[in-house]
Amino acid sequence: MGKTKHTGPINLSKKPDPSLWVSKIPFGLGKVKPHHIRDTIKVAWENKDRLPYATRILTQGVCDGCALGVQGLKDQTLTGPHLCTTRLNVLRLNTMPAINKAILHADIDELRKMNSTELRQLGRIPYPLIRKPYDQKFQRISWNEALDYIAKKMRALHPKQLSFYSTSRGITNETYYVLGKVARFLGTNNIDNASRICHSPSKTALTRSVGVGASTCNYKDWIGTEVLLFWGSVAANNQPVSTKYMYAAKKQGTKIIVINPYHEPSMDEYWIPSIGESALFGTKIADDVYQVNIGGDIAFMHGMMKHWFEMENEKPGSALDHAFIQAHVNGLDALQRKVEAHTWEQLEQSSGISKQRMIELASLLANSKSAVFVWSMGLTQHRFGTDNISQVANLALLRGFLGREHCGLMPIRGHSGVQGSGEMGADPFSLPGGSMNDEQRERVEKVWNFDIPTWQGDIVGESLEHAHLPEEHERKLKLYYMSGGNFLETMPNPDYIQSCLEQVELRVHQDIIFNTSTLVDAKEAVIVLPAMTRYEQPGGGTSTSTERMVYFSPEIKGPRIEEARSEWEVYVDVAKRVRPEAKDIIHFKDARAIREEIAKAAPNYDGIQHLNEKGDLFQWGGAWLCEDGVCPTTDGKGNLIAMDIPELRKPEGHFYVTTRRGKQFNSMIYSETDPFNNAHRDDILVSKQDADTLDIQDGENVVVYNQHGLYAGRAKFAPVKTGNLEVHWPEGNVLIPKGIYEQYAGIPEYNTAVILEKAVTYYAQKDVKYAEKRVEELEIDSH
């Protein structure tokens, strides 16, 4: 941990810099770009019925969008107001009135005609509901009836037959903490959260590489670093406020490098609405873009390190920070042997990057005194995601880019609540303040005053799959209690996921809105519980940002959904009904009492007990983790991890496909068209070179298919790395295989080999077994 404290926001230079302008034409007229002013007016119109409340949420609450940590309209990086369309789009979830009762109790088949966007727009869930098999409508029940039903079912099951899940939808640390405690109180370790499908490899990799699973630096470190490298991250789209930090970094001479299979336009040029100069003329962001093959990142990094070792052979000290390595790093010899064992030809073929380009980036970093590495799902959502992140850590350790100003490793979070989920223990591998090892378990048991189960809990994918186990199996999933989330739109192979959900005897959906998974049948019953938002939670709540800032968000006065309850209170109520004889040890008087216990159970969070008013915050771990190179590992050193190049399993003549985000927030879609490239949701991004080879025209109907599924759409020519395709998420999940998880962190694989064809060819030949034969060849070649 670090001893240096964060120094707070800095002023942004107001001096114009025409060298950064995209165009002298005001507001990017005529260009494909977001229309921030129009979008803001649209949001204001949507919230016109509750505009004063919406304004109070924006000015008093902590953002429930991405994890940059905007508190009111301010943050800890730059002075001045901060507001983005992502936060504005999410706003309506907090201000919507209840669903019209006629629609709420409509025929289930009518509700099933709606997609999740349409269901979301219906409004908030007003009161508890139940629907049993063959019921055509949801029926209203009381809270007591709902919770008694759930408690009775829990008492009848083995603890291994029930699971909990929590999304990152505005969930507070208090809620995560109580859920983690309640699950163990009820005897189960089957508890997981949304980070399993986004940044779980980041936590796992950073823990083994540098001893702590969180960002080692701050957003302020972007501003003034020599190189800011975004790997598999489209921060301009997913964390729009970050463009303001990029702008500030550019003005101080930082080089911004982007590594991605698709040359994302939002990372090239951006019109930042809260900066006058940028709003008028735009800002050039990326100084260079490296288009790597999907899954080729490890080979790319091997190439960079290979050049570093070649530089060292010619002139020791020209590439590696030997003083830092000697004092603070293990594993150099093993890593060097592994790197040097790969030929340049192997590295070029796997990465898709030429030797010369690998040398260019390696040389830039070798000649830089500082760098910050930022990454997201482009690196994590692979069956080798943990190795991807440890390879990034290898680069930082070899150059000493760790534990000091303008240096560090940053997994940039996509949601304001998710960083705290594992740190609060809402995770099958974690307890508050640490892992699930014997030492941590004994420590937390002393705080909780009950025994914690010792068996390994299931990750979310395993929980779902266990619904299909034989009836008598002790781990057959019979009750799934979900706080938010929609596995039909976040997990691979949605048809299979639906079959899993249908096999569960009792499903509980605790949420603020309906989504498509809420409407899926269950074998015994589906119970829906109305939840409060973070702004309605009595006593307020806290959330942890990407940079480990723990912010207090107060309860905000405004209209309420009459029967909605604070989520942590519901968990406690259920637990007391299941084990009434032990109800006193699971009781919390209020949200403040939870924070006081968090400070005891999770030592890093000592300070959270003092957060009670608007504006309260602290940063756990100090400004820089691993400060001065000292890592919280057993020997105080970082670990270089030697790894092989992963086998990509792409048969000759086929493509590798990955998923991307458009105008959306997580799986919530806000527009059918991407404002950065005009792509529609069913467009398949393909390079013109690949399309020409297949005689496919821009806009032509095409299909992408494999043994897992078929995706029909239109070809859209785009600057995508040849041999690779991109489709939108979650629509493209129909192509992704089920049951493939990363071995260390358990994240599902979200990339796969596919065939791309003209739609007319596919459908014309299908009856003569043509397509089936192609799929069979693909299945044989890819194993």
Task: Write up this protein.
This protein has 783 residues and is of the alpha/beta class. The protein is built from 29 helices and 29 strands. A hairpin with a 2-residue loop joins strand 23 (664-665) and strand 24. Helix 1 (36-46) packs parallel to helix 3, helix 9 packs parallel to helix 19 and helix 13 crosses helix 17. The chain is globular, with a radius of gyration of 25 Å. The protein starts with 35 loop residues before the first helix and ends with a helix. The mean pLDDT is 94.
Main sheet: strand order: 2-1-17-16-15-3-4
Question: What is the overall pLDDT average?
Answer: 94
Largest sheet: 7 strands, mixed
- In whole angstroms, the N-to-C terminal distance is 44 Å
The proportion of residues forming helix, as a percent range, comes to: 25-40%
Identify the quaternary structure here: single chain
Using only C-alpha atoms, the radius of gyration works out to: 25 Å
Query: Helix/strand/pairing class, anyone?
Result: alpha/beta
The total of beta strands comes to 29
Spans of at least 5 consecutive residues whose pLDDT stays below 50 are none
Count of runs of 4 or more consecutive helical residues: 29
Outline: globular
Strand portion? 5-15%
